[in-house]
UniProtKB/TrEMBL annotation:
PANTHER family per record: PREPHENATE DEHYDROGENASE, PREPHENATE DEHYDROGENASE [NADP(+)]
Keywords: Oxidoreductase
UniProt name for this protein: Prephenate dehydrogenase
Source species, domain of life: Bacteria
Origin species: Aequoribacter fuscus
Pfam family, one: PDH_C
PROSITE patterns reported for this sequence: PDH_ADH
BP GO annotations: tyrosine biosynthetic process
One Gene Ontology molecular-function label: prephenate dehydrogenase (NADP+) activity
UniProt domain Prephenate/arogenate dehydrogenase: residue ranges: 1-293
The keyword Plastid appears for this protein: no
Length: 299
């Protein structure tokens, strides 16, 4: 199998690295708009060869993974589908974008007779605050979930091919409706990033910023780690999933307002209710995560 990567950043390069030693893989072929990135990917052995234009991947690959930021991925998916629709046999097209609704709507708005059976949208729930080809990790997806959002027009073979790629990379593959994906990820991923960016930006502009960052300890570092993530990627995610991100921000703001009222009123009982409820929820989450890891380790 030949697998193509449109985009050689953290996710694309990590998936290519994870597939490197699979006997089923014949060639890993990439495209990047920066020559320096392509050169690095070749010298690091992330890909076997490169193409000069994204559409060239369609001619030489069985699967093409669009691994670029969300809004760019939307444009590239449409461009590749237009070309693939003229081919006698199109490769499977998939993506890794953190938002699925915008790609789904973009393909549906192309005016095709039906959903292209070879377009299978996906999202790996794994990443890092680091970015670029040099941040690639072959084990990035091990024991992490990948969410596929299949369309009823997909061929079973196309869905299975995408699922198999991720399973080869060590991931657990699940399926989810597009709308639910974007709502859940807005709460669990997009909102925390917005909070981290906002907190660091607010404190950085404070008159006390020098002392704040000088004396910040582990809790601040852990909470704000994701504010070091790629700003372009997270700008695109917030714009692409605007409605759900705003809904999550509104729900958080309401909860924060309740906590502020409790503090202002010296209402220790209400504060304890909020803190204990939060602690219980997070403790349960951690136990479930550890249980899942133990079960995986035992396989």
């Amino acid at each position: 199998m030949n697998v193509g990567f449109l985009g050689l950043g953290l996710i694309g390069a990590s998936l290519a690295s994870a597939l490197r030693d699979r006997p089923e893989i014949h060639a890993l072929i990439g495209y990047g708009h920066r020559p320096s990135t392509v050169d690095a990917a070749l010298s690091m052995g992330v890909i076997d060869r490169a193409v000069e234009q994204p559409e060239h991947l369609l001619d030489c690959c069985d699967v093409v993974v669009i691994a670029t930021p969300t809004l760019l991925a939307q444009e590239q998916m449409v461009q590749l589908v237009r070309i693939a629709e003229t081919m006698e046999s199109a490769p499977v097209l998939t993506d890794v974008a953190s938002v699925k609704g915008n790609l789904w709507r973009a393909v549906e708005s192309m005016g095709l007779p039906s959903w292209p059976e070879y377009v299978v949208l996906g999202h790996p729930i794994a990443g890092s605050e680091r970015s670029g080809v040099h941040a690639a990790k072959a084990d990035l997806f091990v024991d992490h979930r990948v969410i596929l959002t299949p369309h009823e027009g997909n061929s079973a073979a196309a869905v299975q091919r995408v699922a198999t790629l991720w399973q080869w990379a060590g991931a657990e593959v699940i399926s989810m409706p597009v709308e639910l994906h974007d709502k859940v990820l807005a709460a669990t991923s997009h909102l925390p990033h917005m909070l981290a960016y906002s907190l660091v930006d607010t404190l950085a502009q404070s008159d006390l910023s020098v002392d704040i960052f000088r004396y910040a300890a582990g809790g601040f570092r852990d909470f704000t780690r994701i504010a070091s993530s790629d700003p372009v990627m997270w700008r695109d995610i917030a714009l692409a999933n605007k409605d759900e991100v705003l809904s999550a921000l509104d729900a958080f703001s309401a909860g924060l307002a309740d906590l502020r009222v409790a503090i202002a009123n010296s209402d220790g009982e209400q504060m304890m209710t909020i803190f204990e409820r939060a602690k219980s929820s997070r403790d349960t989450f951690v136990v479930k995560q550890n249980t899942k890891k133990d079960e995986t380790d035992g396989v």
